[in-house]
Amino acid sequence: LDAFRLALLGELDARGEPLRRTGLRTNAWLGHRFGAPRARAGREVAVARKLRAVLPRVAAALAEGRITEDHAALLTRLTTPRVESTMVALQDQLIDLADGVRFERWAADVRALVDLADAEGGHRPTPEDNRLRMVVDGNGVLPLDGRLVGEDAAVVAQHLHRAADRAFRRHVRDHQLTDGELGAARTNHLAAG
């Protein structure tokens, strides 16, 4: 149904039917006729246009049930003018990568491949790329696993380094008061901060 809806929308848009019949561009017509939010209507029309004009194998895979509308939408969004020829040439391989793989994993792999293909830029981290996982176990241990990008990474790193410096100064002060060993590593101070 998703494939049929997008194919129909792409065909109506290519023929200019909404504009001819109602005076509204396809995305405005879609929003008006079906009460769709403007942003969603715009995204659907963009996906329909790109599937019809640029990525016919992706459209076919959607119709065959090999991929979902989410897969198709991501592939159309990533098909920018700078990487369009690569995306067109690799449609089948990108579709095959989705077989038996969770969407999130597939999407991350495809984004990474597109970044490699983009000779002018590549990956531009966004806040959506931030990840942090932490769970205190039964022994009071807190393993951290995460990734921060851009400004968030810089801010967190700055705070951790400041905290490590405070912990180091505290450690030196305690060492001077007790004549103890001054052997803690920077990583210890980073964690203690």
Please provide a written account of the structure.
It is a single chain. The chain has 193 residues and is mostly helical. The protein is 66% helix and 4% strand. It has 11 helices and 2 strands. It has helices at residues 2-15, 17-22, 26-34, 38-53, 56-64, 69-78, 84-89, 91-97, 103-117, 150-178, 186-192, and strands at residues 131-134, 144-147. A two-stranded antiparallel ribbon has the order 1-2. The N and C termini lie far apart (55 Å). The mean pLDDT is 84.
Structural class: mainly alpha
Distinct helical segment count: 11
Q: Into which percent range does the helicity of residues fall?
A: 55-70%
Strand content: under 5%
Distance between the termini: 55 Å
Shape: elongated
Low-confidence stretches: none
Order of helices and strands: HHHHHHHHHEEHH
Arithmetic mean pLDDT: 84
Number of strands: 2
